[in-house]
Amino acid sequence: MKTSKFYISTLREAPAEAVIASHKLMIRAGITRKLGNGLYTYLPLGVRSLYKLENIIREEWNETAGALEFKPTVIVPGELWKESGRWETMGPQMLKAKNRGEQDMVVSPTAEEAYTAIVRDGLDSYKQLPVNLYQINTKYRDEIRPRYGVMRGREFIMADGYTMNADDESLDESYKAYEKAYFRIFKRLGLKIIPVKADSGAMGGSGSEEFMVESPIGDDTLIICPNEKCGYAANVEKAECALDESTNKKGEKVAATDKALEEVETPNVFSIDDMEKFFDESPKMFIKCLIYRVINSSLDYSALDCAKNWKRVKDPAGDYYPLSYACVCIRSDLDVNEAKLAATLKASEVVLAEDEEILEYAQAGHGFVGPMTSKCPLVVDFSVVKDGQARMHDAITGAGKNGYHVKHVEPLRDFTPYINADVRTVKEGDKCACCGGVFYQKKGNELGHIFKLGHKYTKSMHVTFLGQNGKPTEPTMGCYGIGVDRTLASIIEANNDEKGIIWPMSVAPFQVCIVPIKYEGAMKEAADKIYDELKAAGIEVLLDDRAERPGVKFADMELIGIPLRITVGDKNLPNIEFKPRAASEAELVPATEATAKAIKFVKDALAQLNA
Ligand code: ATP
Ligand code: MG
Fold first, then answer.
1. For labelling alongside 379, which of 14, 78, 265, 607 has CA 20 to 30 A away?
2. 510-610: what CATH class?
3. How far, in Å, from the CA of 91 to the mean position of ligand 2?
């Protein structure tokens, strides 16, 4: 390719809204252009890298994961989403539309429904399973805050695979095959990946794993055990830790008390700090109670008095409460993790309740909420009660009356959990439950996810096959996703300098560029010769034949990040300059050897990534 025939569209400055390196460089190098908020076009240069990345995923999913590519539509009938129950529960992320016949349509945010419907239609016997299909296709999610360019877009490309399996053993095989393919893919892209357990079965379970790259702008917090033999790493949304003792201000363990509850007037004591001063005690002696608004919980609260006014919606995927409430009790030096809380309540979301709601469910304002007086289900953290044993004694908590606290609280004597669960946020410094190692944390960005779905969709969408025993059986499912754009951006994020991008060979838009100082005379002749030879050898080469100053051409090629530059100048001929993008110095090489040396450079770089 010659630059005069290509669409090079580089910019000196990135728009002000681009704050991270990859976003700035994708715009400046002419890889993407913004069309609207969260909507990015790939320019021809970007398309070349994008397709290479997609093809690496294709190759590994075909070969290593044993999957077959299919191509569902992006627009999917709303009916299918109503069947699965996600029409209601997916929330405002899902873009819905009506066609001219007033039929509901969905712009795919993900494709479990489409896949399940397609496979369901032809499925009768166990002999057809497993069915392992994937697509690389456009997705749309109406993200509230699209940001960092294509890292979190609204329209984006996802490689998503789905397996339908006859039993758990088969699902395990599919899952492991994808896991292996993921490691191969990220290796070929030159990305250092941190696999983290993303389910609470981290101590033994293997139902969900996220593939993260470390990144200061990462949306995820990773909790990592430093002990390599242990290897525990989890998303903070799921991380668990060893429980420590709750102790008083002298650091002593506190014994159970048989003293009766005692109300104490505590005017102006609202925060944990205020309590610490007022009671002259450690926050490990206080039980913090918080009222949460719970969205779309599918627990059954029908036996509870407080639930009489809560609306329960019938749904094929399981009945649920669009709005309910819970009171969370946790040792006051710890924080509630809302992702863990939502998972515990089988809810799509939890949010701290507003003042009026707190008054309604706690009989008191924020700061005075107590477990004995709250009028909604008590979710008690393991820091307070675990395995039927109180882990705090003689504690202090809100009295459920404005301006009052209560002393000598004994969990299980004075209140009973409705649910006893682990809902704390694990932090740096907490200890690993597996090996006692002291956790550290990192920011990470999720590039991919593998997940055992189980029977969620086959149940709600009524998929069955005739099992080996001749009985109708529900298949189990797995799903496997990689964010293609986010991965591309992450490669740039990890490979750049002040001049621009430094592409790894596997996804570079061109492998070699040739820059003649002037495209005329002997320089033109030498450049054309190397160009023709490299092309004939199957090397992807860009010849900069523009009538620009050499400085402009160098700056563009460096910004674009082509891994190798061959500079042809009349001062150096019959030698040329051979300069890998990542190297600081150029090397003079006889022009007659340039082709062979460039071919070797490209092949070695690819071989190293593919090893
Ligand atoms: P996140 O927590 O970042 O929103 P997710 O858990 O919603 O991700 P999945 O539903 O597992 O993501 O989708 C699979 C992959 O698609 C993710 O690992 C990520 O790489 C990519 N992805 C998800 N949302 C976006 C987005 N808005 N823009 C770009 N890529 C995305
Ligand atoms: Mg998301």
1. 265
2. alpha beta
3. 12
